[in-house]
């Protein structure tokens, strides 16, 4: 439950303080001669104090309601026997407070209230006395009972609203925790893919270098070792990029692709055109990272299979999907699927997307689409 500001006292606490003061003042000014009535006052006041202490601790609220019910019934039984209106005042205070409790059911509140009124009327009925005063007392008790029930509805709605707010906050926390877990899983998958790709290729190159050295082909072996070193450096850089994603927000897809295009121009001195269509919008991290990885892999394949040829990259923000297309001049030998595009296709499928690649109109076209 949310805590109230420190400078605001809870309504139930104010009622308890005022009720206790009124009961104490009533007993202090009571003009009563019967010791049995005073004994009843003492038990009734003790039950009220027990109820107040339990409510202050906010524990065992069911027992607190029982104590208050006893206060109500006992003071109601004393209304017809007391020499003054002290018992009626105690009964009015306790009935009004009992009717506003949300712990007992409405049926229990009505049962206690009706019993209290019957007890107040019973002595007059047995003594065959005029019912005018007794009816007035019972009417006052009924009025306080109805007012207490009305207050109970307000407090019940406030309690339900507080509970709903608490449940909403818990649901938001669970959603945030699930989103963080999903992001960690995504980054773990990124690191796994990068390391599996880089280390697998590195292992193949080192085995090849070992075989060449056994054949005394030192020049080819050195070339293979240099290629292995480049693979290790590339894998390390990609792993660092994946780890960096843990410490900063994922950039927008357009910004990520713009950076990849600029880096490709600088590294390969190749003309690359990048266009966006539609209205750019925020994407899920899985979709943005997957499409950026597709763009990087497609640019790498274009530089490998058609070096120096112009490349066109288009990012289309459709109403229901985001589409990335990379075009370059088709090589005489079509680039194979290999691990790169196959891994990208599998990763894109996790984000609900699809990947296609092939030759069309003299160009090699890679198209990735994610519904977002």
Automatic annotation (TrEMBL):
Q: Where are the transmembrane segments?
A: 12-30, 36-54, 61-79, 85-102
Q: Keywords of this protein's UniProt record, alphabetized?
A: ATP-binding, Kinase, Membrane, Nucleotide-binding, Phosphoprotein, Transferase, Transmembrane, Transmembrane helix, Two-component regulatory system
What PANTHER family does the record tag this protein with?
A: NITRATE/NITRITE SENSOR PROTEIN NARX-RELATED, NITRATE_NITRITE SENSOR PROTEIN NARQ
Going by the record, the broad EC class of this enzyme is transferase
Top-level lineage group: Bacteria
The cross-references to Pfam families, in alphabetical order and at most eight, read: HisKA_3 (PF07730)
Entry annotated with the keyword tRNA-binding:
no
Give the Enzyme Commission number. Answer: 2.7.13.3
Record's SUPFAM superfamilies? ATPase domain of HSP90 chaperone/DNA topoisomerase II/histidine kinase (SSF55874)
Q: Which GO terms describe its molecular function?
A: kinase activity
InterPro entries listed in its UniProt record: HATPase_C_sf, Sensor_HK_TwoCompSys, Sig_transdc_His_kin_sub3_dim/P
Q: What is this protein called?
A: histidine kinase
Its recorded reaction(s) are: ATP + protein L-histidine = ADP + protein N-phospho-L-histidine
Where is the Signal transduction histidine kinase subgroup 3 dimerisation and phosphoacceptor domain positioned along the sequence? 183-249
């Amino acid at each position: 439950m949310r805590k109230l500001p420190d400078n605001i006292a809870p309504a139930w606490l104010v009622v308890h303080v005022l009720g206790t003061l009124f009961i104490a003042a009533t007993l202090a000014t009571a003009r009563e001669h019967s010791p049995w009535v005073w004994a009843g006052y003492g038990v009734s006041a003790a039950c009220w104090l027990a109820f107040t202490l339990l409510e202050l601790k906010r524990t065992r609220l069911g027992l607190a309601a029982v104590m208050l019910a006893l206060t109500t019934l006992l003071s109601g039984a004393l209304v017809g026997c007391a020499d003054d209106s002290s018992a009626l005042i105690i009964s009015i205070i306790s009935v009004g407070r009992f009717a506003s409790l949300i712990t007992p059911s409405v049926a229990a509140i009505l049962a206690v209230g009706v019993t209290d009124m019957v007890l107040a009327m019973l002595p007059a009925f047995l003594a065959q006395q005029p019912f005018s005063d007794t009816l007035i007392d019972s009417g006052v008790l009924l009025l306080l009972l109805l007012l207490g029930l009305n207050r109970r509805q307000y407090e019940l709605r406030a309690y339900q609203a507080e509970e709903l707010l608490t449940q909403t906050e818990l649901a938001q926390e669970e959603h945030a925790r699930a989103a963080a877990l999903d992001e960690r899983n995504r980054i773990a998958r990124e690191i796994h893919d990068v390391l599996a790709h880089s280390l697998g290729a590195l292992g193949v190159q080192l085995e090849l270098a070992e075989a060449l050295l056994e054949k005394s082909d030192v020049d080819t072996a050195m070339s293979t070792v240099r290629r292995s070193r480049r693979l290790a450096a590339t894998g390390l850089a990609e792993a660092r990029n994946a780890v960096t994603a843990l410490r900063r927000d994922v950039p927008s897809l357009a910004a990520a692709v713009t950076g990849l295009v600029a880096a490709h121009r600088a590294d390969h001195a190749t003309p690359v055109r990048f266009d966006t269509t539609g209205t750019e919008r925020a994407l899920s991290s899985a979709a943005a990272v997957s499409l950026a990885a597709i763009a990087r892999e497609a640019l790498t394949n274009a530089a490998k299979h058609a070096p120096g040829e112009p490349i066109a990259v288009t990012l289309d923000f459709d109403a229901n999907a985001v589409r990335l297309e990379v075009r370059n001049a088709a090589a005489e030998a079509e680039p194979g699927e290999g691990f790169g595009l196959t891994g990208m296709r599998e990763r894109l499928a996790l984000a609900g997307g699809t990947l296609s690649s092939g030759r069309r109109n003299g160009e090699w076209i890679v198209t990735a689409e994610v519904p977002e």
